Recover the amino acids of this structure.
DNA sequence: CATGGCGATTACATCGATGTAAATACGTCG
DNA sequence: CGACGTATTTACATCGATGTAATCGCCATG
């Protein structure tokens, strides 16, 4: 019962169908000059033997695997797992398989993805970086097609897909201002440093304040270690320690916002009575939290679609066309946490 | 600028170091009979050229890749993304790389994982099945080592890792009973059919009722389509339509529970005032929800560790030892939603 | 000094699939 | 009926790494 026939090879199929291995290969790859009759015979042999192409052999020969890699910092950040779902769906539609890779936001692992070390089986990489440095992109091995998501360590070098972070943050802030909020804190924000997502969103926030003629208070910008619930909870606690209290929290992702909501609940602050809370990403949890969360919803299907398209284009024509920067749409979804 | 040197091959390294390709291979694979001198020269050549082994070539020759696949239904179900994190960490510790695969709970895709179709690069698979049938396991290709998580379509056939679902559900139910709850509904439950996780947990629930001398009311068991927030919300709504209302909800995962919490909030029911709510999985969201969620916490690190260990054993010795069934620990974490 | 023995190194074949180029089959036309 | 062109099919080499078995070099021993 333990002795199973070995997986059939292309030559087993050939023998069974009474043709040469190359003819089997031709059938598999839809080469047009194969008679209907042989094609049928080969198909039958394939079915009969349960033959599947050995991808290692194929890759060795033609250097393609039909697989692409999606490398994200953390899968338990819902934005990334939701995005992964869309990317897989889109890739499926295009006849590709997606391998998912977790970098934990560690530069070394992002570099590994960028260089295809752990991902040699992949024809290209969609990478959502956190710690990559500008020079990592310019010194990278240009042979592996790469599309960056979200963060962009430097201008040029790779195709890029993301939303207009500055505008999104400005709009979210304007929403809070229009509700009469004046002391808006930014959880997860960054005032200086790289033009990362945090910095761009903080810039958008500042623009909105400026337009409204309000002063910018650096004390209201609270950096965080990671974009998780507990960091949001902690940041909210810290903000409530100091006087005067903020009257709104602009949280740079939904996990931070949901963590903050919990802290406010524990401290007896009413949302949206005492404070408004806004997040980014529109993860599923935000529709069901109590109160439900106002959030900036990036167009995830569009992001996934653009990323896969750009990557496949690069794979098919490595040095064609100029670098693309696809700006995906976003919209503010107003829910209970800001009076919706 | 676009002309980059091709990725170096083993023979390029050989030429650079002035030795044969096989000697380079020997160095890479830590073959012991290589002089210190040659070894150093080869190492230097490898560094100088930035050589990395081509895994396709290696796999073709030795049939191993050093990669394992984790196939789960949906990454945006937090339990699975959290588990994925632990599996990756453990695999990393053991010097393996994990490829993640999403089956969407579709039998066809689970079969694909089981047969290594999309996962040929992988030495083995850790699969969390939903729709697999018993015969799928017995008729599967025995050459790909497989460890099943959670559901177990049939006795035997593969190694298995999971918690004691019956006992866990019984304990959770006992907890509710001890708080005086008498009309406990089961969201996501199943009274008959395969011995899936849902069925086992429902059985545990029934056992607890029986021990307490309470009647079993089939109307309190509400099946769901999927284990997502919205299904929990919908099921809770349905339960509130009918009289008499339940006084507790045993939800078979945390997403269902959190969705139900939202519905109860919308309908003005107080938790744990009017009803208690309990979930399964202890995802991060449950610590921060309002109210925080009582839940059965499976020992995820233990599950991940056992799964990886069993799989690596099977890979190293395909037909050694009998089939293992590792029962991982669990504990009930009582939080606000049941008076904690 | 010839021989044996052992460690270090290498030549060659091979894993599976497919590109190239050559061979074969088939049909058409003079 | 034979030559030629086109449609199919095939033989062979190749992708990169490594197992096998053979060879080489060196030292100890008789």
């Amino acid at each position: 019962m333990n002795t199973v026939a070995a997986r059939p090879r292309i030559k087993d199929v050939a023998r069974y169908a009474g043709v040469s291995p190359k003819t089997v290969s031709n059938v598999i790859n839809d080469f047009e000059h194969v008679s209907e009759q042989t094609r049928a015979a080969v198909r039958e042999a394939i079915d009969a033997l349960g033959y599947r192409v050995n991808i290692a052999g194929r890759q060795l020969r033609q250097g393609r695997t039909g697989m692409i890699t999606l490398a994200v910092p953390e899968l338990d950040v819902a934005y990334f797992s939701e995005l992964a779902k869309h990317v897989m769906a889109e890739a499926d539609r295009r006849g590709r398989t997606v391998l998912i890779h977790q970098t934990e936001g560690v530069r070394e692992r992002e570099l590994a993805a960028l260089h295809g070390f752990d991902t040699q089986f992949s024809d290209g990489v969609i990478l959502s970086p956190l710690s990559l440095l500008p020079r990592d992109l310019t010194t990278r091995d240009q042979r592996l097609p790469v599309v960056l998501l979200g963060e962009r360590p430097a201008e040029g070098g790779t195709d890029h897909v993301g939303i207009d972070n500055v505008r999104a943050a400005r709009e979210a802030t304007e929403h809070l201002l229009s509700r009469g909020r004046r002391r808006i804190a930014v959880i997860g924000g960054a005032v200086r440093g790289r033009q990362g997502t945090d910095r761009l969103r903080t810039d958008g926030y500042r623009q909105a304040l400026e337009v409204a003629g309000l002063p910018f208070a650096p004390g209201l910008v609270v950096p965080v270690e990671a974009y998780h619930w507990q960091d949001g909870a902690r940041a909210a606690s810290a903000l409530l320690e100091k006087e005067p209290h903020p009257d709104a929290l602009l949280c740079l992702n939904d996990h931070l916002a949901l963590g903050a909501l919990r802290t406010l609940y524990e401290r007896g602050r009413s949302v949206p009575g005492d404070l408004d809370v806004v997040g980014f990403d529109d993860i599923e949890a935000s529709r069901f939290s109590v109160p439900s969360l106002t959030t900036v919803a990036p167009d995830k299907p569009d992001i996934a679609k653009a990323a896969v398209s750009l990557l496949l284009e690069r794979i098919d024509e490595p040095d064609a066309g100029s670098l693309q920067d696809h700006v995906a749409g976003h919209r503010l979804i107003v829910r209970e946490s800001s009076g919706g």
Notes: The first strand of chain B starts at residue 67 and ends at 72. Chain B touches chain A through 50 residues (CB under 8 Å). Residues 9-11, 21-22, 24-26, 28-29, 53-54, 56-62 of chain B lie near DNA strand D (CB under 10 Å from a C1').
